[in-house]
Amino acid sequence: MFPSFTAVQIDGIVEDRLKFSPYQDGQVNFDNTSQVSAFAQGEMISTFMEGVDPSYKDMVEAFFNQLMKEYPEEAIKAIGLKGTQATKARNKLRRLGKDIVSRYKDESHQYRLGRHIGPVMNAIAALPKDELAAVAEALVNLTVFKRRVSMDVETVGGPVDVAVLSKAMALFGSSESIISDPS
Q1: What is the C-alpha separation between 97 and 61, in angstroms, rounded?
Q2: How is the chain split into domains, by residue range?
């Protein structure tokens, strides 16, 4: 009833059998009214959708996690606790640190969801098919532009082709990203 996809990595043919492995899937349904998926380089699409570069987000989370792991020892040294008191304080601070890291991840995800991902997904769910193709092409071109102006290897480029797939029609015009519409 609703569109869905499964992306597969094809490794070749071994003994007359296609060797492949699924690596991504998605679907549109009553709860998930639109889907944006990156195939190949997805960091610019993630940056656009979430409002933060994925590698920066990962670095901040890892750094914050490391700080919370180191904090108990530093606090115990600063206060001058020894023996049993130090052990009890260390255990409490470690648990508290894990809770703080978890709360940070949850809160930052909820912020990205409410401020960036949700509004974009709601807009995409309401776009007509020709506009969906324009969105997909713009996302691919954003990746092309980023690769072109940075020191990264230019792995995306050349002519961009878009396919909007629906039950009623198929428009061809970029397929680094495919955006599905339920109609």
Answers
A1: 13
A2: 4-180
Residue 9, CA distances (Å) to 22, 142, 179 in order:
6, 24, 19
pTM score of the predicted model: 0.71
Residue pair 130/179 in contact (Cβ under 8 Å)? The answer is: no
DSSP designation for 114: I
Q: Read off the amino acid at residue 84.
A: T
Q: Which two tokens stand for residue 35?
A: 């889907």
Which pair of structure tokens corresponds to residue 11? 């490794």
* Local structure of residue 122 (DSSP, 8 states): H
What pLDDT digit, counting tens, does each position of 32-63 carry?
Answer: 888 888 777 788 889 999 999 999 999 999 99
Residues 6+ apart with CB under 8 A from 160: 137, 140, 141, 144, 174, 176
In the block, which residue shows the tokens 């401020």?
115
